[in-house]
Amino acid sequence: MADPYSILGVSKGADEKAIKSAYRKLAKELHPDRNQDNPKAAERFAEITHAYDLLSDAQKRGQYDRGEIDENGQPRSPFGAGFGGGSPFSGGGARPGQGGFEFGGGIDLGDIFDGLFGGGAGARPGGPRPQPGPPPKGANIAYEHLVSFTDAAKLEPQRITLRDGKTVEFKLPPGVVSGQQIRIPGKGQAGPGGNGDAMVTLKLGKHPFYDRDGDNIRLDLPISLKEAIAGAKVKVPTIDGPVMLSVPAGAQSGTTMRIKGRGFAKKGGERGDQLVTLQIRLPSDLSKLAALAEALPDDPSLRAELGV
Predict the structure, then answer these.
(1) Inter-residue contact 229 to 253 (CB < 8 Å)
(2) Which of 45, 48, 143, 245 could form a disulfide bond with 236, CB atoms 3.0-4.6 angstroms apart?
(3) Rg of the chain over CA atoms, in angstroms?
(4) Three-state DSSP class for 78?
(5) 296 found inside a domain
């Protein structure tokens, strides 16, 4: 992936507000709902969301700026230093000796190992030695994976590229949240007892106009003054596609309406709802409201509950 600053079109010194503004502008332009016939737009949308996810996290942004992690959020030097040359023991080289191996000082390692594994002074000479445990598996490998808002809500299958360049598909669990880990068996480092696992930490992406509220999705929906006064059927976006919503006559700004089953998948198999909050927008040409304002009566009790 390219540099996240260049992807969003901001400078490295850009503040949080500028980064968020750049993301929102690009997200509205490239969102898949507006570009259903353009797969490249969907790819770009995922790219800018990943870039924003990194730069909007102050800790990760600092790590990236310092060169500690790459554009994918992975450490630039994932493996620590190994052992240096030579034996990890001091005291010179080992040579075969009676009852085991001897080091320079004449220490019989056979006696030491007997003490560690149940032998020694209290052990019956020639008695059975305990069986060794199973050989250890290889180390796990940690990954981070960004899941889009809509994929998380609908539990769409995910694919991740492993360090060996291969890709693997995995499923999202119901009720998935940021920070949750997914274990992919056998996709870690090799070891005497088999491969370790891939441990994938999930990060849920943001959305330009949806917000998550538990298993529900919240949306602020602009409506016109005419629609609020007379009532209307208006088209509302959901993660499953647009639906028609009946706005009642005399609707107030701040009124919240519910669309069943259009939220996040729950652990029990059902889905949450979409909560739509109406926001009345006045016409930009205020001259058209002048006659209406003159015809409306004053209501002195409007703010009585506030004590004024």
Answers:
(1) no
(2) 245
(3) 32
(4) coil
(5) no
Closest Cα partner for 188 from 145, 134, 137, 144?
A: 137
Residue 106 exposure: Cα atoms within 13 Å on the Cβ side: 0
Q: Does residue 241 come out as left (phi exceeding 0), alpha (psi in the -120 to 50 range) or beta?
A: left
Q: Are residues 189 and 146 in the same domain?
A: yes
Residue 71 is given by DSSP the state T
Residues paired with 290 in a beta bridge:
none
Q: Which domain holds residue 60?
A: 1-73
* pTM flag (> 0.85): no
C-alpha span between 249 and 226 (Å, rounded): 9
**Is 81 part of a structural domain of the chain?**
no
**In this structure, is residue 31 part of a structural domain?**
yes
Q: Give CA separation, 296 vs 7, 280, 291, 302, in Å.
A: 51, 17, 9, 13
- CATH code of 22's domain: 1.10.287.110
Q: What is the CATH number of the domain that holds 187?
A: 2.60.260.20
DSSP conformation class of 168: E
Q: Would you state the structure tokens that stand for residue 267, as one six-digit string?
A: 């652990």
Contact predicate 221/247, CB 8 Å? no
Residue 103 has phi, psi (to 5 degrees) of: -100, 180
Residue among 222, 225, 240 at smallest CA distance from 293: 225
d(CA 181, CA 183): 7
Tokens 């492993």, located at residue: 162
Tokens of residue 43, six digits: 């790819």
